[in-house]
Amino acid sequence: MPHLFAILWLSNLQLRGSFPWLVAAVLGLLAVAAVVVLYVRESAKVALAPRIAMALVRVAVVATVAVLLLRPVWVSEEKRDKVRPVAVLIDVSQSMDSADPRTTPEDQGRAAIAFGLIDADKGLPAETLSASHEKTLERPKRIDVARAALTNPKIDLFKSLAKVGPLEVYTFGTQRVGRDAAKDDWLKSLAATEPKTALVEAAFELLNRDDADAPAAIVIVSDGRENAGPRSLDDLARACNRRGIPISVYGVGSSTFGQLQVAFGSGAADKGGPGSRVGTDTDVPNTLFVDDITTVPVRYTVKGIAEGTANITLKYGDREVATKKETFTLTPEELRDGKTFATLMKFAPTKADAEGKKQEYSVAVAVTPTGARDPLDTLTGGLSRPAQVVSRKLKLLWVDGLPRRDFQFLQRDLLRDRRIDAKFYLTEGDRAAMRSGPPWMIEFSREVNGTLNIDRPEFRKILFDFDLVVLGDVPGKFFTKDQQEVIKEFVKEGGGLIHVAGRWNAPAAWAAEKGGPVKGDGSPIAEVLPVEFDAVRFPIQSLENPVGFVPVLDPAANRTQIVALEDDPIDNAERWGKRGNQTALGGSGKRLEPLYWYYPVTKVKPAADVFLVHPTARTPAPDNKEMPLLAGHYYGKGYALWVGFDDTWRWRFNLQNKLTSRFWTQAIYSAGIPRVVGTKLTQLSTNTIAPIEGTTGEYYVRVFNDNFQPLTADEVEGTLERVDAGPDDKDRTVPVKFQKVPGTEGEYAMTLPYNKVGQYRLTVDPKNKSPATLNFPVVYRDNHELAPGALDEPAMRKLSRQSRGSEADAGFYREETLVKLAGDLKAQKSPQSSRDEVLLWNQWAMLLLLGLLSAEWFLRKFNGMS
Length: 866
Known about the structure:
Distance between the termini: 27 Å
Largest sheet: 8 strands, mixed
CATH architecture of the largest domain: 3-Layer(aba) Sandwich
Low-confidence stretches: 267-283, 513-520
Mean pLDDT: 84
Number of helices: 21
Helix content: 10-25%
Strand content: 25-35%
Number of strands: 37
């Protein structure tokens, strides 16, 4: 019995019973002893041999029972090496249905290899293909090229990979789907219809297996577009590198398929480097002057074309006014992210342009890849912008008190501007200088006790000879009540007015005729301005140190050029301040130098736009809104602008007159041009520069009636036309509605969803004989499945290289190297063990026990024992 338990202990038997084996052994020994004693005392009539046989049978019964109490299990374990599989992921997203232009001999040769027109093991052809082959391979779909390559018997990719390890084939788009690796019939009907490419997630699903079942390698057949899932290609590369699972990529598609975006914008090329934004329209002139050199900045972004030629054509109306031809070469990084180029198109408008019916300029850019043979390979883009040619200069009159610093600097700038005919007058200036002649306004030197001594008819004749009046810190008594009424009429009939607030006289002088706060009727000039204010007196020397501030852009600033100090809206926002207490003012990055004074107002008038506000100050209760610093509105046909500060000269720090001059020039044109070109009764604008499918944009329309009063209707109707839709398309033209903006008379807004890509024309005709239109494109986002784009070769090369932890380029294949893919992979094995268990306390053990008991009973009966 001890030997029996020793054998059980050392063998592959395992005891699963709850009965202690030591107790079973002791009980077994006692049972054996009892059996021996029993048969020794048996009758001497029975011979020794039968007694020994019966004793042995009884001992076997006892031993069997003891073993069964321990529930023995026979365990066998086998160890061997398992060959790990090779997984193939085939992209079937919609981008694989793109028909790529193959303009270069290399791309045409790759398609020829895939379709079996060229031996796969001979590489790219040294000579150009025949004309018939070129026509066949002109624009094959990516999925067709991939299908041809995977079923090409000369490449024989699946069978080659099966020699490395068991083959697993999957297709993927939004989800991974298993395919039969032993057959390729399903490839013949394979379609690229999935709406997204979850390349990273499909590969990560394979990595979720344990080491024994993980693939030895992953082969990806794709154009490299990834637009689904939270993880990136870099995350996948790191995970594969940690697991020792290399990724090999068969890149499908043309590497010279390009994209082109065109915009008006700054003349500084590619400031942001690869992938920088295409700029905005904020720096585009919309008023041109005859015989004055006009500079139109054009920016275009090229993506996916290694080298080529760009032809830029500028037209005014139907007349071609300027052309340029530029060549370019992109680096691999620029090929993927795109590079922005900029150019300045210059021309001089003529009198014929001023008299033409089509008052707009348009730019067209055509990019042709090097080696392109088909006109369809040329990328084109263009856009137009309304711009009116003025055949005379803008006439400006600036009246101020003392020559403040802003006045001193701006006077020189305005006198140098060929588009402006400026005259000036200082009420507190030297009398001899004021009478000396241009640029001084001699007529205004006719003062009596500080009051302009010109009667109403003559003053009207003088004033109406100008397009814009700038009033500074003018004493309240300088203009009589009749003269102020003439200024009011001047604006109402189309003239422009800019009021630059001062500390000593105006606007406090306009608050009331006798210097008190406005109660009931105010002065005519105060009625014209877009803000309401009280008379505020400022000390000559403040007892407290002034606190600097940088003005903050208000949302309406998106719809004016006045505050656009930079071409890029992001860069422009960095120039201005932030709401709340400001720190690190001046000299910090791009932010403007702080200002130290402003004139407080009590309220903004209805229908006025606020462009700049104070970062912390607010208007008095009950209005309690952000303090406006720059605001404007239309008063009748003319435009009035409020400037509540007077120290923009500080912005000249380190930048000379760049920012100050740009701010004031844009303010002067915005206020003065309406009189030159006429005020538009319907003004349509948007804050969305580049509409993208799946997003929304805000559109605004300002409407005046025939009397130049703001429209009071609750809504304004318009139409949205998809210009490139077919004539039978029922959705080609749809009605839209603009809703009234609360608190702003004459202004309406609409949120427009961009549901479909295409060229659109938005038209608003409020029946005031002045309809307005706005043309805009809606495009796919960059990584959308249907967005045009080349094979993302740099990303796929990086993925395959980093998954191997290698600095050298490895793991990326095109059609000419696809035959080498399987040979570059190494088979991987993982140790595997199989375990088998057999329960020994089963029916056979019971039969054995019964057999032993029967044998003992038979022996006892045979020997005459009971």
